[in-house]
Amino acid sequence: MKFQIKENLIDKAISYFSPGLGMKRRQARLGLQATSKGGYFGGSKTRRGVSGWNPFGGDADTDHQLDFEGLRNRSRDLARNDCTAGSAINTTCTNVVGPGLTPFPTIDRRALNLTMEQATEWERDTKRKFFVWANSVNCSADKTQSFWDIQEMSFRSFLESGDVFCHLPMAKRTKFWPFRLVLNVIESDRVCNPPGQQDTKDLIKGVRKIGGVPVRYVVADAHPGNRLYIKDKAKFKEIKIVGSKTGRRNIIHLMKKLRPGQTRGIPFLAPVIELLKQLSRYTEAEVMAAVISGYFTVFVKSESGGTDIATTLTEDETGQSDGDNDMALGQGTIVGLAEDESIDTANPGRPNAGFEQFVLAITRQIGAQLEIPFEILTKHFKSSYSAARAALLEAWKCWKTKRAWFARGFCQPIYEAWLDDMISSGQIVAPGYFDDIHTQAAWARAKWVGPAKGMINEKQELEAVKMRLEMNLSTGEQETIETTGGDYESNVEQRAKERKLLAKSGLIGGQGGEGPPQDPKQTPEEPEDLDKNDLEEGKENNEIN
Q1: What is the DSSP-derived secondary structure letter of residue 410?
Q2: Percent of the chain at pLDDT above 70?
Q3: Which residues of 199-224 are buried (b: 16+ CB within 10 A; e: fewer)?
């Protein structure tokens, strides 16, 4: 590779007065340029395409904490007002959480030395009691949401704001409510530094650290964006993440940690906020241009001017005037012009023929960044069956990963906190639960099931399910979860109950065939109220028909 040195004015002056020193200077610069040529052009500081690109290399907090509030507020605004951003948030929430992730206790019966019958009975009883708590609004601190509603709201808040907190206080038991655990969801904004306190290495955006490890969260008593919020009179409370005496989890911080040392979360839409806003502006401009081009106005020129131009142009679509000096286009308006008046028009050339293709191209880039295929993001299914199914499968990988992360970081800790209270109060019996961490993990193990991925060609995909079961590549329970999101054991019990009812009604036989079992050698008995003449007449009628 040949390197060229471009001499500046100083180089030329040195070479003029001292050629030897000028030669050494050129050799040094040539060597420096040669050593700066690494194996990756993207890291070069001399190549024209990247020479002016010098991003700052800060740690996880430094790279985004200065823009933290701006990212959060803009993300929420887009989620409220932009169609593409709203679709990304809603689609992710619907497919990851949906109506709520349901727990299926799956204790390690071998580690606990339990029979299958004992384990099954314990799991059924625990699930039944958990559903009593989860289905009631009494599980929330404000008595307005069930556990399933809290799941959806928390996950949506995480996507829009970057993170969300859930406090796990214990209330008093009553005669009619035997549970103590309540859930208090805290929005991201309320965890912040007290007024006048800047970020330090031990306090970053409301997170108190010791040796780089979060130990407490500083929570304001009200949202800083509340119109009644008075900053100088705000009260702050520091909540320990883990109780010092009991080791119990007091608060959950739901965030996606993308880099080591990251303290606060980053909104889901953060990488595409600028692109979404520019696309929204472009769409609004095109819509307005199309609306303007849709107005048709006739101008009549006469000596006196048949219609007052000011009066005509100030009437909007409803016939109301906006003001004495305001002018607006009207639909099908006729305007009179005097002898010395004229009108200049501009043709906006709308609708724009390239609008759709441009918007779709940008939307594809947005979908790729958010791991939502274009067809699913825009609900635009016009490709082939194979392409549509590939898009669904690709999106399902992303949603399944997010669901597992949400279950581990939010649902399971809440289930364990509920189980701690139930076992400590004696409402659920679990020997050795508080004695050993391994025993506790064996009792607390659960599987979280959410909405199924859906099917495009149901017949083909159910045939594939049947083949997997026949080849022992899967289980009935796993296929039920993946196909319908249901409970395999409950399905089997319900089907057995239905078959008994059908058999009792005579609608199915003992072997599962339709109709009661019959001896093929025997013919049905003839009705007693029909004589031979009636039978012969019926036979003739059948032959005629």
Answers
A1: I
A2: 80
A3: beeebbbbbbeeeeeeebbbbbeeee
- The lowest-confidence range among 22-31, 55-64, 281-290, 524-533 is 524-533
* C-beta separation of 112 from 304 below 8 A: no
Query: Which pLDDT does position 541 carry in this prediction?
Result: 46
What tokens appear for 403 in the block? 């669901």
> For residues 292 and 286, is the Cβ–Cβ distance under 8 A?
no
pTM of the model: 0.77
Under a CB-based contact definition with an 8 Å cutoff, are residues 244 and 216 in contact? no
Residue 217's SS3 state is: strand
Q: Which residue has the tokens 């605004």?
A: 77
For residues 128 and 102, is the Cβ–Cβ distance under 8 A? no
Q: What is the DSSP string of 233-294?
A: G--EEEEESB-TTT--B-EEEEE---STT--S---TTGGGHHHHHHHHHHHHHHHHHHHHHH
Residue 529: its pLDDT value, please? 47
Mean confidence (pLDDT) of the chain? 82
- Sequence letter at residue 505: S
- Cα radius of gyration (the chain): 36
